[in-house]
Amino acid sequence: MKTRIFRRIFGLFQLSIVMFLVEPANAQIASTTLTFDNLSPGSDYSLVPDGYGGLQWNNFGVISGGGQPLYSGYYNGMVSSPNVAFDPYGAPASITSTTSFDLISAYLTAAWQNGLQLEVQGFVGTTLTYDNTYTLNISAPTFFQFKYLGVDEVDFIRNSSYSQQFVMDNLTVSVPEPSVFLLGALGAAGLLTLRYARHSRRYGCPTRLEAFAVVCEP
After folding, report:
1. Tens of pLDDT along 37-75?
2. Contact (CB, 8 A) for 62 and 48
3. For residue 175, which of 2, 54, 58, 153 is within the disulfide window of CB 3.0 to 4.6 Å?
4. Residue 45: CA atoms inside 13 Å, Cβ hemisphere, count?
5. Contact status, residue 107 vs residue 143, Cβ threshold 8 Å
6. In DSSP terms, which residues pair with 58 in a beta bridge?
7. What is the pLDDT of residues 101-110, one digit of tens each?
8. What's the chain's average pLDDT?
9. Taking the model in full, what pTM does it have?
10. With contact defined as beta carbons under 8 Å apart, do 105 and 144 qualify?
11. How far apart are CA 107 and CA 211, in angstroms?
């Protein structure tokens, strides 16, 4: 009877581990559209904080597009009001993550210069996997589908002799969610360890793990 109980506990633990290992291939990865409208740029602008959308941000600012000149790309580039993201001083900007993510799409606009060339590079580790250049204008945002899958860094580099900015709104990304099977496996492992210790103390015998059981040593 006792062996059957521990057999079931250890079997649950092993099943949880197997499900955790195979789950990433079948996981549903939620897509999120980042509008930047829930950030507070103040009277000027502020930097996009690390952790926004589950990502790390380098040289990305957020500004109220509705408060900018009507002829600028900041105003015209608004897809959702009131905020847009941009690259302060026209310096290269990047998005990174400690885990892989998908860069799906975004609306891009030139802030001041029609015909602005924006190079978008996607990296997997140190390997450049995606590299495309897009042409942006001031009058209206252009919707681009990147489909940069499984990257951990995306660099945005404007190809211009002037320090011109680009404007971005409604960026859609997919960031994997934590696996519920990992939590299940850890919980089962803790339960097994507790029962293993109790079994040894209760029956006063050294114990060992078999394929699906915790049993006394003969």
Report:
1. 999 998 899 999 999 999 999 999 999 999 999 999 999
2. yes
3. 54
4. 21
5. yes
6. 94
7. 999 999 999 9
8. 81
9. 0.71
10. yes
11. 55
